[in-house]
Amino acid sequence: MNIKPIKTEADYEDALERIGELMSAQPDTPEGDELDVLTTLVEHYEARHYPIDTPNPIEVIRFRMEQYGLKDKDLVPFIGRSGRVSEVLNYQRKLTLPMIRKLHAGLHIPTESLVQDYELRQV
Q: What is the rounded distance in angstroms from the CA atom of residue 94 to the CA atom of residue 119?
């Protein structure tokens, strides 16, 4: 086992290739241990170099609408009148706490996804 820190993109590619070779390794074997260590190193490298931003609340709502086949009008019970739904979905009005609670309860959107800050757009 020749494991070293992943410092460059070439190191990263090499580690991914080796992980591919080790995917069928049994746990508690030298190969299984190498796979565990390499996976940890790759995860750390990816977290630093390829961070995944959390989606903003409007993106989360739109995704849930797509999943459930909902239209803007279907959000009226959660957000308010259709004009308000439009304002929220077009980044012209922020979600309020009551809206967040209703979206969480009614559409099962995680609260932590809905409370993220996001920028409003100028009209």
A: 9
